[in-house]
């Protein structure tokens, strides 16, 4: 098994891990997810009021209703009856049929469940995932005896993580001090906090070594943001390469606005000063409180300058402009505040002697956000007080170190006082990945769950092995799941192919590029096969030196070290990339598209009820998992996806003229979603969410075409029993699509926060925006023209013949 699997994704994993620990960089921004706070003003956006004669009529009440479903109701003796009945009950528990679907489809589908406290489909699935994840540790003892080594190692760490009291807080501090001392020894300068009278400027080699080593050895991003990935432009021929991105701030942008800064600066400075005192205590040094406070304030000012430098995320959607190859010699002349050879060597410090042979001044790296990374940062460093600059780097190094050394279990409750202000980011392939929805924070209901979460993230393939063993023990069932889901996905590909065929705005050559991309899609379902193979799993984790007798602190240090080494190892080993890389632990409710692989991944954690069961009615399978497949597929064809080709190389395949047509299609979507304003002045950011919205819209088209094609070949399913018996197949399709997004309505603060931090539109607009563009909805629910959900003017996303 190739070592390349997953390596390039570990950056995100580190960040998530640190998030779990409640320390250092990765904690999610304060998500003001205030629920049950719904007010009437959050109803669907204003539109023309339908004339009274056009009111939706409940078919149960009015026998003249046009869309009366035909065909028989499913027989109680049918093997699928139980699932049909379950679906019927699910609709009943959520739907408020007194609401007019043409007027407010979202609340028609979700309105009752919102009032009765139904759990959202995502929550239901997530809690099943959590149950499996908890259960996978409770298997009979015999499982561990015969398990491959990495799984045994998981168990050793998991057990120790919860109970190992064989080390003390003093041991923890001694370890932190040692790691800090390693950094000091490496750079040969003392920590300026402790000798604030030394105003000496760090020379550029020292500055570079300091910045590079904190990243290479401890995973901190200070000033420069380096990560290793495949070469975007030559993923199969070139070895792995280092990318260097713009500097990242410590804190969220909200605290740095002109309006807020006066209020937040003293708060942040006080919190930093507290951490600096801990730092001094650990190092056995005393500093006066006033000195600390002044230095902390200067560091916050400096962080604000870094925060203000950040490139607009909308501009960052253009990947081509971020691919700027340089040799280190060129960088040395272009950005003279760093010694780039010293920096790169330091980021690769875990490679040992290997790095020095590799890194000469002819070594190539890719610079992202060129102007910021090279010019703006260079001038900022030049004009910053040397003491502040040095303090800032040392502090972030120390901050990272404190986060990576665990305390004994009983004392592991220590909260990170800075947590709620910390900026969240990831700088790896995932930043390009189209997810079904924003990843949910990992579970950490208790110490067992938190320990499991650490392992799921750091050793995702050993964890995935345990997950599949626990969730689907029977090999036949595993294959059936993979086959069934692949069949659905292939029907959706078929639907999308027919859309491409009929597209009237794309020239032939560009269409060839699109077909090629579609034909080469890599489909990953449930789990990677190799994790179920003992020999392959063991070989993959070959370098993981974790023993049963290690104490937990040492296990964790070894894990973290292993992790940082895997991140840079491909620079030396130059493995081939694996397009079947799932990129994440499989026990999660999400799905994603990776442009660098041209792959779609459905982890096992989402392939379950309420999203999917092989015995569900077809219309609900296509409206649920089918629309999700269509969403991920269309990410390959959204504003970012079209920059990548069939093998996952950064290589746009559209002609200029077709790209223009694509752009006006995207603009239509941008304008449509920008007009969704749940509160005065609080509107969806159409540009920032365009990729997700294009994916939702193209995806449902493909899923609906697939359903129609499937039904014309195989015939329609029988009707649901009970409550659901009044719905046609088409209606079930739309109901399921909307139900996927059922959740509590957001408060104003919740909307604001989501709009600011999420590339996905709020749930209600994912439904409204998509259905508005879909004429088949109008027929399915017998809606008059120009109701809110059926505007005459709409966007045709990846289709010239919308149904
Ligand atoms: C259904 O919606 C109507 C209109 O908004 C509301 O008055 C009613 O309480 C809702 N019913 C349920 C069960 O939520």
TrEMBL record:
UniProt feature, compositional bias: Low complexity: 40-54
SUPFAM superfamilies: Metalloproteases ('zincins'), catalytic domain
Entry protein name: Peptidase
The Peptidase M13 C-terminal domain, residue ranges: 590-797
Region (Disordered): 40-59
Keywords of this entry: Hydrolase, Membrane, Metal-binding, Metalloprotease, Protease, Transmembrane, Transmembrane helix, Zinc
GO molecular function, one term: metalloendopeptidase activity
Lineage, opening ranks: Eukaryota, Metazoa, Ecdysozoa, Nematoda, Chromadorea
Coiled coil: none
Transmembrane domains' residue ranges: 7-32
GO terms under biological process: protein processing
Span of domain Peptidase M13 N-terminal: 101-528
